[in-house]
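Reopening this one. Same input as before:
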Amino acid sequence: MAWNELSRSGAKMDMSGSGYKARRVLDGCALAFWILAISLLVRLGFLWRGQGDLGAGVSSLLAAGGLYLIGHGFRAARLMLLIGDYRVGIKKIALVHFFTAGVSVLLPFKLGEIYRVAELSNLLNDMQKAVLGVWIERAYDIAILCVLLGVVAFGGGPWSNSLGLLLVISTIFVVGTVVVFGILPYNVNELALYMVRRYRSPGSVRVLQGISLFKEFTDAASRMLSRKKTILLLITALIWACETFAIVIVFHHADWNVAAAVAQMLGSISDAASSINMLHVTQTLTALSTLEREYFLVLLSSLLLAAVIAGAKYIPPRIHSTLNGPKTALSGKPNR
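Same output, byte for byte:
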């Protein structure tokens, strides 16, 4: 009830003007990020020119970039499955995914996830579903990451501080997700009953409203995951298989085993959270070995190219829609 009321009030806010201003700000951010993505893509082009002879070979790099984009295609499919809204077209969801994935390259410390939530909320006109969608995506990713960390630990792969940091972050996220969605929902009704019987103050009313919001939030998560858990896990496994084989292709002629390749990939994920961004990409890439630099270059280039193309198709229509007047993101008609 509470979330539905918030959604309805959000729609009214859009029509009254303040939500319209928020959409204009988001449009401005999207346009700025798109220009930055083009700028970084150009910079990567100059880095490619300075590479000289390619250690991994052109065919290997093209195959790795293609596999990486196929993995992102699976990510877009996973997002479509999670949203499950007939009013939002497959093309629009795919464009939002590839564009926000490219933006994540531009922002450090995983701040791109916040922007992803904002874009999905704008698309769906539903902040609750946007937050849940991104949270569930990451929960499945973390589950596979834990398996991959086990492959490194028991497969003889090199362990590093980056992997240790990734393990700590993954553990905190997994424990928090289990508590929020697995433990607390079974106790909120008892807590609400206790509050009703024990307290009569105005503050207890606010606590009960918070409990109601939380209960509706977890119930919405259960609905999003209903009959989808297995297929979401399978899609996530395919995503990480693509990303793992992408790095194996680049390093296939080096003295590496799968565990070492996985360790390198996971280490790069942790490093990317703080190093690979618009301001430091040149310094970071030039400090790597030849194969590592080519691996990062092909992944960043392929993702940014996809993001620029997606932005070119996605941003102009939404800016045009915003300039035509304040409207909610979704109407009763399908949004292709």
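So the earlier flakiness isn't reproducible anymore. For the record, Residues 52 and 118 are 41 Å apart (CA to CA).
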